[in-house]
Amino acid sequence: MPRTPLIVGNWKMHKTIQETVDFSLRLKDEFAKEKDPRVEVAVAPPFTSLAAAAKVLRGSPISLSAQDVFWAESGAYTGEISPKMLADVGCRLAIVGHSERRQYFHETDDSVNRKAAALIKEGLIPIICMGETLSERQGRSTLSVVEKQTRDGLKGLADKDPENLVIAYEPVWAIGTGHTATPQQAQEVQAFIRQLLGEIFSSRIAQGMRILYGGSVKPENIADLMAMEDIDGALVGGASLDVQSFAQIIKGAQPSKR
Ligand code: PGA
Questions:
Q1: Block means of pLDDT (10 residues each) for the chain, length 258 residues?
Q2: Can 14 be counted among the known catalytic residues?
Q3: How far is the CA of 77 from the centre of ligand 1 (A)?
Q4: Ligand 1 center to residue 28 CA distance, Å?
Q5: Is residue 134 part of a domain?
Q6: Is 170 a catalytic residue?
Q7: Based on the structure, what is the number of domains in the chain?
Q8: Whose CA is nearest to atom 2 of ligand 1?
Q9: Mapped to the 3 state alphabet, what secondary structure does 97-125 carry?
Q10: Pairwise CA distance, residues 180 & 164, whole Å
Q11: The one catalytic residue among 40, 107, 122, 170
Q12: Which of 21, 39, 91, 179 could form a disulfide with 86 if both were Cys (CB 3.0 to 4.6 A apart)?
């Protein structure tokens, strides 16, 4: 089943409102140059820049994503943002379970699961991140780590219209290090994730779901990664902060280039 490639720029804690506006205007121009874009694109600015980005990107094919969310609808949760607030500001997607949140902010598979369910309920698309650390890979437990993250992170979502949810496989050792996983390493894990999705949902749903790769994606390696059967796009950190390099990654992900 053909899956439309998806490229998401995860800005992490970067860019002021003015920098967001400048970037978004330039990205819109770059994207307009592509006559037949067969790639879906989203940017994930920090919360403070979402409204400004939404204003610039409204009516364009570039979607807006948040970098996190809290699962409750509203209430006494100082500092948190609900799915409804994200929808209200113009987000279509939200990243959950990024390894930096797991590492520094105590994110667990259980909180990832609650966040994903809350996003789907609000009509938003969760991008659920998972991946092993270097010591887990060296200890040959990559597949069991990813299996637990998949099964626990997606628990109970089968009866909640999971069709649109997106998985991002991001080996922790590849994030921000310049050490990209080889296309074969990523493919092996992503094929395994798709098989698990087939068991959790159905093989029809699994075949339609997009599994992104993330971890030191650059203009130079996107085409080789995208050539793999189970790599349907990328979650890009560092290389998404520069319009030119992000635009080149989008270009490199075009199916015609495969
Ligand atoms: P990176 O980050 O592209 O800078 O490695 C990817 C991510 O953390 O999503």
A1: 92 98 96 83 98 96 97 98 98 98 97 98 98 97 98 94 94 94 97 98 96 97 97 98 97 75
A2: no
A3: 28
A4: 22
A5: yes
A6: yes
A7: 1
A8: 237
A9: CCHHHHHHCCCCHHHHHHHHHHHHHCCCE
A10: 26
A11: 170
A12: 91
The binding-site residues of ligand 1, defined as CB within 6 angstroms of any ligand atom, are: 10, 170, 175-176, 214-217, 235-239
User: Residue 247 falls within a domain, yes or no?
Assistant: no
State residue 258's pLDDT score: 44
Which residue range forms the structural domain that includes residue 159?
A: 6-20+30-234+252-257
Position 25 in a domain: no
Quote the CA–CA distance of 227 and 199 in Å, as a whole number.
25
Distance 239 CA to ligand 1 centre (A): 8
- Indicate the Cα dihedral angle 39, 40, 46, 48, nearest 10°: 130
Q: Tell me the β-bridge partners of 166.
A: 127
Q: What pLDDT does 205 receive?
A: 96
The pLDDT, as a whole number, for residue 160 is 87
For residue 215, give the ligand 1 atom closest to its CA. Answer: 5
Q: Which amino acid is at 216?
A: S
Task: Assign residue 154 the CATH number of its domain.
Answer: 3.20.20.70
30, 40, 98, 132: the catalytic one is 98
Q: Amino acid identity, residue 211?
A: I
Distances (CA, A) of 156 to 33, 134, 198, 207: 42, 30, 14, 19
